[in-house]
Write a structure and sequence with these properties.
Layout: H1 7-14, E1 21-22, H2 23-30, H3 34-46, E2 50-55, E3 58-63, H4 65-76, H5 79-97
Antiparallel strand pairs: 1-3, 2-3
Helix pairs in contact: 1-3, 2-3
């Protein structure tokens, strides 16, 4: 997820689960310019992590469930090996304490 590697983009992404927000609301919440937020939102939209819907003369941004599902599917392939590694580490720690 290269799109979330940037800390400002990550902050924007993390500000969206509660409610859709406009560029101005995101800029105020994150503490960067509206122009910078717009650029970051473009990257997040291209990665299908956020989507936009018009609301009068504003554009509201929210998380895009399609892209989140793609990300979840990608990460789930690593889950069995992560659990196995965790189990092995626990077993090793228990053996070392005995």
């Amino acid at each position: 997820m290269i799109a979330l590697a940037d800390p400002t983009r990550r902050a924007i992404f993390e500000a969206l689960p509660q409610t859709p927000r406009s560029v101005g609301e995101l800029a105020a919440a994150i503490g960067v310019s509206s122009s910078a937020v717009s650029q970051h939102l473009r990257v997040l939209r291209e990665a299908r992590l956020v989507m936009m819907r018009p609301d009068g003369n504003r554009r509201l941004y929210s998380l895009d469930p399609r892209g989140l599902a793609d990300a979840r599917d990608y990460l789930e392939q690593f889950w069995p090996s992560a659990l196995a590694a965790y189990s092995a580490a626990l077993s090793q720690a228990e053996a070392e304490q005995s």
